[in-house]
Amino acid sequence: MSKVCPDARTALAGLLRDGMTIMAGGFGLCGIPAVLIEEIRRSGVRDLTLISNNAGIDGAGLGTLLETRQVRRMISSYVGENKLFAQLYLAGELEIEFNPQGTLAERIRAGGAGIPAFFTPTGYGTEVAAGKETREFEGRHYVMERGLFADLAIVHAHRGDSEGNLIYRMTARNFNPVMATAAKVTVAEVEELVEPGALEHEAIATPGIYVTRLIRLDSVDKRIEQRTVRTRQQV
Predict the structure, then answer these.
(1) Which residues cross the membrane (predicted)?
(2) How far apart are CA 39 and CA 104, in angstroms?
(3) pLDDT tens string 85-131
(4) Where exactly are the structural domains of the chain?
(5) Which of 4, 98, 154, 221 has the most CB within a 10 Å radius?
């Protein structure tokens, strides 16, 4: 059965509601499900908890949901590129749960694997460990972290087929694959859509069993957060 939907509105139909938890893949602006994020913005759902490595930048990515005040809480690792995020947090309009980046990735992986909690040495003795259970194993101290599982995961893939099998490209592979496994429903957007069997089997990172719906993108706007260049050396 084909899982392909004609557009983002159809792909997210019946899935969005106020107060839900959404995982959004990508790293910075790389590999973010920008079209699905825009549809969430258009839908007007509010009081969202977002799980993402970062909060995008002002005017792009998840930053657009901050502009419309649709987000109540962020579970993230790095948010330093977004000035509005800081303003909302300092004004008490936005809750934040910071995680070391590796811990965030493992919390998501654990959620997808059905693991409710795990122990990590990262963060012991810091604010990260405040209010959490700690234990000592073989002379080393660890902090208990809970697995994360969302109502909805939205991901961006380089290639996919109509059965939902996905392949990611380079940096876009960072958080998208683990998030695809850690939600009740996963919706994907793909740059290139092929027929079943056309993908190289060993290259598939997300099996179609995890993906409920997907859309093919007509075009992709690949923005750069910070462009750094140097003068070309004369030969």
Answers:
(1) 20-37
(2) 25
(3) 889 999 999 999 999 999 999 999 999 999 999 999 999 999 999 99
(4) 8-118+145-215
(5) 154
